Amino acid sequence: MSMPILITCKPDYEKILTRELVLQNVHLQTKSCGWILTQGEEQSPSKQTETPLTNLCFAYNILENPVSISATSVNSLTAKLLKIFLTHLGQTRVDEPWAFSFSSSDNEQLIQRTKSVKRCWIDKLRKKMSHVAKLSKEGIPHSSEFVEGFFVHFIDFNQAFVSFKARSAGQQRMQMDPRAPSRSYLKIEEAFKILRHEPQKGETVIDLGAAPGGWSYSALKRGATVTAIDNGPLKGSIKSHQNICHLKADALKYTYDPTKPADWLLCDVLEKPDIILDLLHKWLDKKWCRHFIVNLKVGRNDPILLLEKIRDPQKGILPYCKTLYVKQLYHDREEITLMGQMKE
Ligand SMILES: C[S@@+](CC[C@H](N)C(=O)[O-])C[C@H]1O[C@@H](n2cnc3c(N)ncnc32)[C@H](O)[C@@H]1O
After folding, report:
1. Statement: residue 167 has pLDDT above 70
2. Are the C-beta atoms of residues 16 and 304 closer than 8 Å to each other?
3. Contact 66 CB / ligand 1 (< 6 Å)
4. Distance 250 CA to ligand 1 centre (A)
5. Apex 54 CA angle, 184 and 101, nearest 5
6. Is 297 a catalytic residue?
7. Long-range Cβ contacts of 197-201 (<8 Å, 24+ apart)
8. Could you tell me the pTM of the whole model?
9. What is the per-residue pLDDT for 24?
């Protein structure tokens, strides 16, 4: 029996996530705004492997074997959650830090409800088991493995799912830097977090489609040297930064002539995704970069067909990569982002 799982996603992307899951032979039981619940299915013994679900593009958090609870007030929801937690804990001695999270979809009322229940639950836990509460760590760690803990996802004012095993695909809301020239800055900051790697002091960065300059700003902030390519103007302090060279040129025709590969290719060019994928293919094939972060504007294109193209074992991007993440970031709109490191 494979167990049901609750998967959260950007609101309105439930259908696309469902299609992505079907490719991995995982089927929908029910869905609503920002989440889907999959079926637990009978499987033949030969197929009884856990679905790893590590390479989903549209998934945010994945909660294993969720149990639904409902109650009509903050106090009664808290009481039920505490009872479930304590029953699960039983006689287990807790002397290591453990993870917990309370989440919901991006609906202001639901966010406030979730915060109230979380506060009340932590208060009650502190009073009952201060030692266990002290070791709690908020958040689902970004990992390819499921971690044990206590994970609550509110799907409605009076209803939540509870799980003891979860994993996060790493998307997270970033904090805006008021000096950054554009809000695109949030995307690149989030991408560096997911990749767990970022430009280092003295590294070279080629930023295609750089204007007004949020991504270049983020690289400069880390001490990198940036070549920014865009016919549009850069804004703010980066215009006169000593470590940036702005080339007013077409990023699609730009030919890099390196003595050694650039440490980073950043690409946020406003173009059709197939054209950008071909551009990335060229950069990887010519070994012009070591790491890349490339944003695809999905627009009206079918994202599932794009994913298949990216992951194609022969013609895709995958064969070039030591690491490849393809994700819809928290800060992506109708976009997905490719983050990777080339094979040596
Ligand atoms: C979403 S914006 C980039 C935002 C930028 N990453 C930032 O952080 O501020 C897209 C950019 O792509 C640029 N662009 C579109 N086609 C281009 C091309 N063929 N060559 C260079 N830049 C291009 C546009 O001028 C625009 O500035």
Report:
1. yes
2. yes
3. no
4. 10
5. 70
6. yes
7. 197/291, 197/341, 198/222, 199/223, 199/224, 199/263, 199/264, 200/224, 200/263
8. 0.93
9. 85
CA-closest residue to ligand 1 atom 27:
211
What is the residue-averaged pLDDT of the chain? 93
Considering the four listed CATH numbers 1.20.1440.230, 3.40.50.150, 3.30.450.20, 3.40.50.2300, the one that applies to the domain covering 184-342 is 3.40.50.150
Tell me the two tokens of residue 112. Answer: 């406030």
| Topology given in CATH for the domain delimited by 5-168 | VC0802-like (3.30.2130)
In the prediction, which pLDDT does 52 show? 53
26 by Cβ neighbours in 10 Å (0-12 / 13-18 / 19+) ranks as: buried
The length of the chain, given as a count of residues: 344
Say how many Å lie between the CA of residue 232 and the centre of ligand 1. 7
Q: Is 214 in the pocket of ligand 1 (CB under 6 A)?
A: yes
Q: What are 339's two structure tokens?
A: 């983050």
Give me ligand 1 centre to Cα 147, in Å: 39
**Terminal CA-to-CA distance of the chain, rounded, Å?**
41
